[in-house]
Design a protein that fits this description.
With about 725 residues, the protein is mainly β. The protein has five domains: about 140 residues, Jelly Rolls (Sandwich); about 130 residues, Jelly Rolls (Sandwich); about 90 residues, no CATH class; about 140 residues, Jelly Rolls (Sandwich), CATH 2.60.120.380; about 70 residues, no CATH class. Strands 3-5-10-7-8 form a five-stranded mixed beta sheet, with no helix packed on it.
Length: about 725
């Protein structure tokens, strides 16, 4: 592993001015001896025998005036393929370039480095890109201030490097190209592109592209499209004002140009934004500070994410520009698309970093009550607080976000084992997210240090909490809750929802609203982050029948419903209705067991920020017969309960009690024993018929599945993860 370059001190820069080559025994990270820059910089010793006349000191003495800079060493002998910008091996021989520079015929000689002088204005943003030819030759890229301080680096293990930088002050900067190893000799391409953030940073008849950060031509008025009541708002300078207290607005965006709106903010204000559009389309939005151009929020999901939403928390006082744009980058020309934009503003100061949920602003300023960026963006060292990955100085670092809020953000590295985390701190550990690895984290001290309500701090590590069947299985103060993947784990209770207040305190199974199975509707309110629970009691004489529950709501809202045995025999999901475009969700539970069945209602998406009214009803429907052991009806259920109770005709969950071996049939995670990561229940009845409802684990290669009988490594979600399952 080669030594990475993270900083370049003024001492190193001074040494570079005195020597064109570095001995092969020195690495790029080693500083030269302190006296390397002092030999010729002193004035003559006053006690020496200086030759003088009545007229004063000799001409030689004049030439050695105090503080005279040493002459640079002569240029090194040019290598065979040296380019015409040579000699540019030192900062003071740097070749002058400017934004817009681009050449693909430059050449780096072995044991040398190439320097370029770049003048930037305050807040000017540039993108510097480097590409070796051939690409497997390792080059690194540095950007330095005039004082020799490294302000940005890109130092991967390849010949392709890329760094973006916004000048804090006007002045001279240096671009330095060096070999990742000192003997690299290679042709390369170098380009410097000016990047904008606001339209005002571009020329006449131009706008700043939200996709590339480059100034692009805007269509002339005769080619304008996307006409609506808010035009002309195709640039952030002509943005239309949004009324936080007004109704949602309906508008039309054109593929040629975004629509811009102004969000005004007093210090501490929080804005919620919701963008809704036709299914199958892909609209995004970004929010920028109109004073600095800084990106403060974005919602850029794919076509499956609709609506797009963001919360921009505790802003500084000022004006912010919200841009709505088609995600095709303008490739579809004049195509127009209608959309609805819903916004809401809430006043209030942040109290701690936990309140700072916005993009790139992880710190709460206790004086002003606003969320702010880290002060040393681009130079944050491993283990220190960051807002985005661009804040981290190490090219291989990532900004770990942890829980919502900036309290646990830090620059860290990915890992496969604890040994790789020594670069972060002693006793740092690798927190895994499956067999594909994890990130290095500091040892935890309390449960709140862990990034999920489903993890707890155990001996300095954030471990997955225990599985449960009811809240009685959990420590005092915890609750049994369902994870996004269907398993039930002990969890810290979520904070109370600030919306969806319908007078029913039914946010947990323990406080579920009783629902009679008589077909009568009960009303409720849903919102993002609010979960409403209902409980239906099935009498013993109705076991084996069908229980039907319906949830109805208005068009433009996506509400989902789930059914589970929570306080009964097992914490098992036994039914769900999650269609994206229905206004009534229906769950039918066949061969239902006697006792309490719990239903959870939650809002997945809405075209408005207001609470959504809904109704829920339940009824028992007579079944001609219950399940039978011979018929295997329980295996054919969408959410299998694979045990048939022949006496009642009801299908019950398997009581595996953590004893089912890898590859064994299961219907919930708590059935599985050692070595299993999950009971694979994501394919329902089809999975059972294919033998896939088994205790298994993730994999990276076929060899990983040797311990799960009769399985192979099958990839999902375009290769993002893979699971040991029977061959398809």
């Amino acid at each position: 592993m080669k030594t990475r370059i993270r900083t370049l001190s003024p001492l190193v820069l001074a040494a570079a001015l005195l020597t064109a080559c570095v001995d092969d025994s020195q690495t790029a990270a080693r500083e030269p001896e302190a006296d390397a820059v002092t030999a010729d910089a002193t004035t003559p010793d006053s006690s020496a025998d200086a030759t003088t006349t009545d007229a004063g000191p000799t001409a030689d003495a004049d030439a050695l005036a105090p503080d005279a800079a040493p002459p640079p060493p002569p240029p090194p002998e040019a290598c065979a393929d040296e380019d015409d910008l040579a000699p540019n091996d030192l900062a003071e021989r740097a070749a002058p370039i400017e934004a817009g520079f681009g050449r693909d015929d430059l050449f780096l000689c072995a044991g040398s480095s190439d320097w370029f002088r770049l003048t930037l204005s305050a807040q000017e943003r540039v993108l510097v890109q480097l590409a070796a030819n051939p690409a497997d030759r390792d080059l690194d890229l540095l950007l330095l201030s005039e004082a020799g301080e490294v302000v940005a680096t890109s130092a991967t293990e390849t010949g392709e490097e890329r760094l973006a930088y916004t000048a804090e002050a006007a002045g001279t900067y240096f671009v330095q190209v060096i070999g990742g190893f000192r003997d690299v000799e290679v042709q390369y391409a170098l380009s410097v592109t000016s990047q904008c953030r606001l339209d005002s940073q571009c020329g006449p008849n131009q706008a700043c592209s939200a996709f590339t950060g480059e100034c692009v031509d805007v269509p002339p008025p005769e080619r304008a499209c996307g006409a609506d009541a808010f035009e002309p708002n195709d640039t952030d300078a002509t943005a239309a004002m949004l009324d936080a207290d007004g109704p949602p607005i309906d508008a039309v965006v054109c593929a040629l140009s975004p629509d811009w709106y102004v969000l005004p903010a007093e210090a501490g204000d929080t804005w919620d934004v919701l963008l809704t559009f036709a299914q199958g389309e892909d609209l995004d939005f970004v929010v920028r500070d109109l004073g600095t151009g800084a990106l403060v929020a974005s919602a850029t999901g794919d076509a499956n994410t609709n609506p797009e939403r963001a919360r921009i928390s505790h802003l500084s006082a000022g004006r912010y520009a919200l841009g709505v744009l088609l995600a095709d980058g303008g490739r579809n020309g004049r195509r127009e698309l209608p959309y609805r934009l819903d916004v809401a503003r809430t006043a209030g100061r942040c109290a701690s970093d936990r309140d700072c949920a916005g993009l790139g602003r992880p710190l709460c300023d206790g004086t002003s009550g606003v969320c702010v960026p880290v002060p040393d963006a681009g130079q944050v060292q491993l283990g220190d607080t960051c807002g985005t990955t661009e804040d981290c100085a190490d090219a291989e670092a990532t900004c770990y976000q942890g829980r919502t809020g900036g309290q646990d953000n830090l620059c860290t590295v990915t890992c496969q084992d604890d040994a790789q985390c020594d670069v972060l701190a002693r006793n740092a550990y690798c927190q895994f997210s499956g067999r594909r690895g994890g990130v290095c984290l500091y040892p935890c001290e309390a449960d709140l240090d862990c990034a999920s309500d489903f993890r707890e701090c155990v001996a300095g590590r954030c471990e997955i909490r225990q599985q449960c069947r009811s809240s009685a299985d959990c420590p005092d103060g915890d609750m049994c809750a369902q994870t996004p993947f269907g398993a039930f784990l002990c969890s810290a209770p979520p904070p109370p929802a600030t919306c969806g207040d319908d007078g029913q305190p039914n946010d947990t199974p323990a406080t579920a609203t009783a629902l009679e199975a008589r077909g009568m509707s009960v009303g409720g309110l849903a919102c993002q982050g609010d979960r409403d629970w209902f409980a239906v009691n099935v009498p013993a004489d109705r076991a084996g029948d069908t229980l039907r529950v319906q949830v109805s709501f208005r068009a433009g809202v996506d509400i989902d419903a789930y059914a589970a045995l929570v306080n009964g025999a097992d914490g098992v999901l036994i039914g769900a209705a999650t269609s994206p475009d229905m206004t009534t969700e229906t769950i039918e539970l066949r061969f239902v067991p006697a006792g309490s069945i719990y239903f959870r209602v939650e809002q997945f998406a809405s075209d408005a920020l207001a609470d959504t009214p809904y109704t829920i009803s339940a009824e028992l429907v007579d079944a001609p017969s219950g399940c039978t052991a011979e018929g295997n009806e329980c295996l054919g259920l969408e959410f299998p309960r694979i045990t048939c109770d022949a006496a009642s005709g009801a299908c019950l969950p398997l009581r595996g009690d953590g004893q089912v071996a890898l590859g064994g049939l299961c219907d919930s995670d708590d059935d599985c024993g050692a070595g299993a990561e999950a009971c694979w229940t994501f394919e329902g009845a089809d999975g059972v018929r294919a033998g896939a409802n088994i205790c298994t684990h993730t994999c990276q290669a076929e060899a990983d599945c040797a311990d799960v009988p009769n399985t192979t490594c099958i990839a999902f979600q375009q290769g993002q993860f893979a699971v040991c399952l029977p061959p398809r």
